[in-house]
Amino acid sequence: MRKCTAAAEVPHRDVFLAILAGQGRVSTSDLARIPRKLRCELGLWHEGEHADHVWDWDHRPSHALWVRWSPDGAGSRLESLPWCEAARPARDEACTLYWEHDHHHSWELRDPEYESLARWLSTTRLRTARPASDTPPPDRPALGGPAAAGAPGEGWAPGRCWLYCGGVDLPVTWIGPVRVPRGDTPMYACADCTKRLATIAEEEIERADRESLASR
After folding, report:
1. Looking at the structure, do residues 98 and 63 belong to the same domain, yes or no?
2. pLDDT digits (tens, 9 = 90+) for 168-188
3. Among 71, 80, 124, 150, which is least packed by CB within 10 angstroms?
4. How far is CA 30 from the centre of its chain?
5. What would the pLDDT profile of 3-62 be if each residue is shown by its tens digit?
6. Domain end position, chosen among 108, 128, 155
């Protein structure tokens, strides 16, 4: 099952006040942990409100702060909810949604952005061997994010591979943004590592499809 694609603006003032009221303090570094954009974490076609987790309580680890917003965009509200207690069978993996969430657990959900990236990584263009070190990559602007790199896979330039090999001064291409607590940043990888990632992604999509069919 794919994740819901609904998104909304973060009510930063309300989130700030809720954190302050809940744990009595908010530091500058804390503010960097608040997401820049709300993205619903529930499954596609879920019932009722959309929901996104925005804060882990320091004083109450069994609960977390969530933003709930209506599908018609009429408004949003904040709610402190206990974590779902379900665990994935045969794996040490807990559900990352709240207690009594709608339908599917988090491990049954696929991120549509991740799925799109996986399909792109599976293209023939990225299944070729890494360009030889004595073969310069096509000319293009210096690495600097999506604006500089164009669409994923459009051109290569010397840089650091962010994936498995960790190599430096390799021909790398922009493969999309990566989300960290402080925000989003562009990520680059060499051809060998994108090929390896594509294989893993395809296996994961096939596994999720089999589990989804088995649960029906």
Report:
1. yes
2. 888 888 887 777 666 677 888
3. 124
4. 20
5. 888 999 999 889 999 998 988 888 777 777 888 889 999 998 898 999 999 999 988 999
6. 108
H-assigned helices in 47-190: 112-121, 146-149
Q: Which is it for strands 170-180 and 157-159: parallel, antiparallel or unpaired?
A: antiparallel
Greater confidence, 67 or 216? Answer: 67
Residue 121 confidence class, pLDDT cut points 50, 70, 90: low
The span from the CA of 79 to the CA of 164, in Å, is 39
Residues in the chain: 216
Judge contact between 155 and 181, C-beta under 8 A.
no
Does any domain span residue 2?
no
How far apart CA 82 and CA 65 sit, in angstroms, is 9
Task: Kindly report the backbone phi and psi dihedral angles of residue 64, in degrees, each rounded to the nearest multiple of 5, phi listed first.
Answer: -145, 160
pTM, rounded to two decimals = 0.55
Please give the tally of structural domains in the chain. 2
Same domain, 12 and 78: yes
- Are 142 and 93 members of one domain? no
Domain shared by 22 and 93, yes or no: yes
